[in-house]
Amino acid sequence: MKLHEYQSQRIFAQYGIPVQEGEVATTPQEARALAEQIGCPVVIKAQVLVGGRGKAGGIQWAQTPQEAEAIAARILSLQIKGLPVRKVLVTRAADIRQEIYLGIGVDRAAACPVMMASAEGGVDIEEVARTSPEAIRKVRVDPFVGLRDYQTRYLAKSIGLSPSLHRDFGRIAQGLYRSFVECDASLAEINPLVVTSAGTLLALDAKIVLDDNGLFRHPDLAQLRDIDEETPSERAAREAGLSFVQLDGHIGCMVNGAGLAMATMDLIRHFGGMPANFLDIGGGARAERVAAALRLILADPRVKAILINIFGGITRCDEVARGIVSVLDEVRPDLPIVARLVGTNEAEGRAILERSGYRILTATTLAEAAQKAVAAAQSS
Ligand code: ADP
Ligand code: MG
């Protein structure tokens, strides 16, 4: 779950990171009032859950409150990377001498957190990583030991930060590391962390991505979810307890278990098709959850065939079949459906599908199911 800049900024402030605080406005009039209160010049910043807002025109300077109102109106009517802007952050404009990057994420290969710093902050860090990876300095953090002061000194020194700022940089890095660990984040990033013309460090942007699997430990953070920013299918999936990722292909997949779902997608590709989604209904899914999953797949107009692959263990095939039939009765799609139900109560499951009167293609092996789905998608 991604947090907005203003939300991440508040969290960073709690960890002692100096941030350029601001207030959120949802109308141009509010932005004007905030500009008066804060004192111009101000920077008006679109609050959308994507990066590169600056380049997209979502971050602009205002010299007067009137200008703040006009700019806020413009930004609030923008769509950035397909997302409509519903809120702006109004914040004091900083005098920037240098922009650096400081972030922490997870190095999956090394199985530990990795802190990264670069003198080339402000710009797209992924671009820096691609074109000049040596410009990003990294330290791996042992989670049992924590971030050590010598590591933050190394980062400060290797990005050429003036020695007078090393102590403050160390405090910021420690605060960032603690926020990352204590929030169960997968990413915490300040880009840019600037050196102001007064010679101090200040965080001008803030980004936190929380690990959804840790959210149950943080009811306060879970409440920060901005449901306006979710697509309807993401919301439906979350409410039904489904792991769902939309993809670009034509074959809708409904599978129980993430590993089986990935194997199913691989086989679809192997036989020349493209999956339209990753969808794991989880273990022991009841008919309602199965129905919600099928509705999600049917809501995607690009889907040309559906592949249902259930390996019944705790999940009962008859329960899955009941869920499927309940949706077919309601929606009556004319898409080819291939179902492979094996394991617990598979005979009952198949009987339910047969009795439903829908022509559902069946398969015994996964390869056969994938092949049939690919062929069905091509001819439909
Ligand atoms: P994004 O990463 O989405 O483009 P940022 O918050 O990083 O958004 O802003 C982009 C750029 O705008 C920054 O690199 C910085 O140069 C400038 N900027 C952002 N906030 C301020 C501010 N409060 N004062 C001065 N400049 C700012
Ligand atoms: Mg940024």
Would you mind describing this structure in some detail?
This protein is elongated. The protein folds into three domains: 21-92, ATP-grasp fold, A domain (Dna Ligase, domain 1, 2-Layer Sandwich), CATH 3.30.1490.20; 97-222, D-amino Acid Aminotransferase, Chain A, domain 1 (2-Layer Sandwich); 230-379, 3-Layer(aba) Sandwich (Rossmann fold). The protein is 38% helix and 25% strand. The protein is built from 13 helices and 18 strands. Helix 8 runs antiparallel to helix 10. With 380 residues, it is an alpha+beta fold. Strands 7, 8, 9, 10, 11 and 12 form a six-stranded antiparallel beta sheet that branches. A four-stranded antiparallel beta sheet has the order 1-6-2-3, covered by helices on one side. Strands 14-16-17-18 form a four-stranded parallel beta sheet, sandwiched between helices. Magnesium ion binds next to loops.
Quaternary organisation of the protein chains = single chain
Number of domains: 3
CATH topology of the largest domain: Rossmann fold
Q: Please tell me the CATH architecture of the largest domain by its name.
A: 3-Layer(aba) Sandwich
- CATH first level of the largest domain: Alpha Beta
CATH superfamily of the largest domain: Succinyl-CoA synthetase domains
Helix/strand/pairing class, anyone?
alpha+beta
Please report the total strand number as a whole number.
18
